User: Fold these one by one.
Assistant:
Number 1:
Amino acid sequence: MATNRTFTMVKPDAVEKNNIGPILSMINQAGFKVIGMKYTRLTKEQAGAFYAVHSERPFYGELVDYMSSGPIVAAILEKENAVADFRKLIGATDPSQAEEGTIRKAYAESKAKNAVHGSDSDENAAIEGNFFFSMLERF
Ligand code: CMP
């Protein structure tokens, strides 16, 4: 059953380009409510653990280096059908394939530097939210 929650990160490229505000605005305008939010930076070890599911992929090293290269904004978001609707809002992993009106179309620069993360399932949304947030940090 859908949990109505998803997890997101505003990635280092978008933070560096001062796009936190515009991205959060698109998220709010799409009807997502913020349940938890923090501005933080992952160590290489933490980024490696977060993306462990991709450890066999050729881009894993690049992904870990990149995701630990600067601060990110992590958030748990709530909305009916959150996982699927959020993936629609962010658009394709490769920004050149992302539809008009999506966050990645507007703010991503490449497959690696793609502005935002969005959970791909309810199960991963819960795992990823738990990676960053305690129960005392959710409202
Ligand atoms: P994300 O939604 O955070 O989940 C996995 C990430 O791996 C993905 O976004 C991309 O940033 C990254 N990724 C996927 N495919 C590639 C690729 N071919 N080259 C570099 N990074 C990739």
Number 2:
Amino acid sequence: MIGDIAQILISEKEIAEKVAELGRKISSDYQGKNLLMISVLKGSVVFMADLMRAISIKARVDFMNVSSYGSAQKTSGVVKIVKDLDIPLEGYDVLIVEDILDSGLTLSYLKGILLERNPRSVRIATLLDKPERRRVDITPDYVCFSVPDEFVVGYGLDFDETYRNLPFIGVLKPEIYENT
Ligand code: IMP
Ligand code: MG
């Protein structure tokens, strides 16, 4: 697996430091609030697992899985809920935990769905942000790293469902894409 990586973009140590810092910031911002962290499967599970342990206030966690309605509509960002939340959102300060904000289409649609459920607030925490790729007007409230417009894997992010278990964020060798 490691032989498929051309370059390490963000090391384990850099990730750990940033996640710890973000955990402290969220703990302070959500003091006295009713924090519910929602992880969007599967890309954000590694980030979620580390971030939740860096938070020192009471928090609940839940998971959602969404899938695009097929390639034609993928560009519209319309998503189907494959796994929904277990609880209603009234009274919660929702924090969506994402792996990467790219075009922003998925997250903007998802944020809309969650807002309709009348939570107290909805914010977005993303591990990575690719601002150059944005197609809708959505800004994350918390970002660990801004990355250039390159396809990255590891720390939860996949290429063809693999490489999620790499402990760092890396760039694949071009031949890996070319062979599929
Ligand atoms: P978007 O913001 O709606 O375009 O979709 C973002 C989703 O696309 C992320 O949650 C990832 O699953 C996937 N994605 C976008 N860029 C990358 C990347 O560089 N590596 C791996 N997955 C990516
Ligand atoms: Mg994802």
